[in-house]
Each structure stands twice: as structure tokens, then as C-alpha cells.
Amino acid sequence: MRSGFVALAGRPNAGKSTLINNLVREKVAIVSDKPQTTRSEIRGIRTEEDVQIVFTDTPGIHKPKYRLESRMNKEAGDVMMGVDLIYLVTDGSVPISKGDEFVLNMVKNTGLPVFLILNKIDKMDQKQVIKKLQQWQSRFDFAEYFPLSAKFGKSFDDLIQTTKKYLPEGDLLYPAETVSDGAENFRIAEIIREKVLQCTEEEIPHATAVMVESKEFRKNACYIQALILVEKKSQKGIMIGKQGSMLKKIGTLAREDLEKLLGKKVFLELFVRVEDEWRSRDARITEYGYGGAFRGE
Ligand SMILES: Nc1nc2c(ncn2[C@@H]2O[C@H](COP(=O)(O)OP(=O)(O)OP(=O)(O)O)[C@@H](O)[C@H]2O)c(=O)[nH]1
Ligand SMILES: [Mg+2]
Asked: Which ligand is nearest to the CA of 35?
């Protein structure tokens, strides 16, 4: 039996969360077309007869503007230090950028084996894939190269089997049936945040935090009250929408996913509150569960 940890690292929007969800065959991390969706480490566990892989999704590494964002970057770096193997996930359909080089340097400095995951090949032709692989190969001697589509790929068996070879001999790290180790309330809040990201534009997705205020199981239903936090009064207006239309839309979309997650009927009440500059306040960032544990630097 082998077991160990694999970190998925890369720039925002590369497809890390999409990939982890498919690797563990369950939605453990939220996904959106907006960069900087993932704000903290999220684990997804895959157990086979002879291997258990603990995949760790990390926030996309980027140039930080807010305290929240520097903590997200730090979280990604911290996660990388404690694993057996790193997947550098990159969007193959766009040119290699300075941001990619920055992530590559971080990954190199760990001294760990690194797989290059060239993602989104569904948007590329074969020639482009080969060219991109060559460009990456000239930058670093990756342990393995996997061109794939995290979104449309059907089987990742080859990746799993190769990954296994890089993990140490060891026992199960989690019970065999565990897929996510995320706290239930955090997963609920994240699902709601995913719908906010889906329904809003520009500054709002980045300025939003979500927190579960109360959760109660009664008979075969779950009653949830959650708080959506924004930074400005004007954002609150947009979040609520005309006669509450936006909030209703977000609530309906979230409820569908929450019923799947909890396996019960869900009654969801959403509230919106302005929390001035929460992205710059460590205590708030920690309270909402973003950016990993604050280690006081
Ligand atoms: N066409 C295509 N789109 C993809 C693929 N993988 C991911 N996407 C899309 O890319 C966008 C970003 O995906 P995420 O999985 O949220 O990316 P991420 O790397 O986790 O991003 P951050 O959390 O912001 O760091 C979403 O709109 C996905 O649907 C792929 O293989 N092909
Ligand atoms: Mg993500």
C-alpha cells in the first residue's frame, strides 16, 4: 500500500479545482470562470485498493493587492512544503506568462518532483499541445508531463497510476470512504459563494465572503441561514437586486447543490451585510475560513 499528498498548484483559473473534483469524483472545491476562486487549502481524497492519494487544491498564485490575497499566496506556498509531489497545473490554451514563471520558481524551490499538467487541451490542436510541452520542458525538467482536459477528460487512470509511483509506502491516512475532510459549514458557505461568483461581475465576486450563521436538521430537512458579506453599500444593493431578484437567484441555485450535498430538502435563508474592508483584516479573513491559519507574520 502506498499513500501520500499531492498539491495542485498554479495560476488562478488554470483549472486546479476542476481537476481535483474529477480526480476524487465528487465536488469538493468550487469552480468559477473568475480568477481567485479558491481561497484556502481544500483536500480531496481518492482511495484505491493499493493506494490512497490526498490531493490538495490551493489558491491560484498571483500578484496580491489585498491582505486576503497575500494570505492566499502564502497558503499555496505552505501547502507545497508538506507534500510528496506537486502538480503544476497550467492553462495550455494561453501563452506562458510571467505569472507562470513565478509559480514555476516557487515549485522548483521545493525540490520535490513536479508533474506538468497541461490543461484545457480541448481548446487546442495537437500541434499546439506539442509546442507547449516543449516550451515547458525547456524551462524545467518535470518528472512527468500530462496533457489533459480537467473539464472534459473521461479517465485519469494513467495520471493516478503514475502518481502512485511517486508516493511512499504507507497506511491509509483517512478512512477509505472519506472523500473530503472539509467542515460541513464551510462547504455549504462555499457552494453559496460559487453561485455568487456565477451571478455577479467585476469587483463583487472578489469582495464577497459567505458564512453559515445557523444550521438545523429537523425531520428530513435542513434549515440554513447564511450571511453574504460585501465591502460597500453599493455592492449590497447589487447583491440583493431589484425586489430581491438577485438574492433569490443565488438562493435557488445554491439550494439545488446543497440538497445534493446534504441529501435532504434544504430551506435556505440568505442575508447580506456590509463589512467594511474585510479583505484587509486578518481577524475577518480567518473567521470566514480563507487564507489558511494565520501564523502571525
Ligand atoms: N475548456 C476548458 N475549461 C476548463 C478546463 N478546466 C477548467 N476549465 C474552466 O476554467 C475556469 C477555471 O476553473 P477552476 O477549476 O475554478 O480554476 P482554478 O485553477 O481552481 O482557479 P482559482 O481557484 O481561481 O485558482 C472554469 O470556468 C472552468 O470551467 C478544461 O479542461 N477545459
Ligand atoms: Mg480553484
From this structure: 1
Average predicted confidence (pLDDT) for the chain: 96
Q: Which of 167, 170, 265, 268 is nearest to 221 (CA)?
A: 265
CATH of region 184-287, choose from 2.140.10.30, 3.40.630.10, 3.40.50.11540, 3.30.300.20: 3.30.300.20
Q: Which pLDDT value is given to residue 293? A: 64
Determine whether the shortest distance from the Cβ of 14 to ligand 1 is under 6 A: yes
The ranges assigned to domains in the chain are 2-165, 184-287
The residue to mutate among 22, 93, 151, having the most atoms of ligand 1 within 8 angstroms of its beta carbon, is 151
| CATH 3.40.50.300 describes domain 2-165 | yes
Task: Give the DSSP letter string of 7-72.
Answer: EEEESTTSSHHHHHHHHHTS--S---SSS----S-EEEEEE-SSEEEEEEE-PPP----SHHHHHH
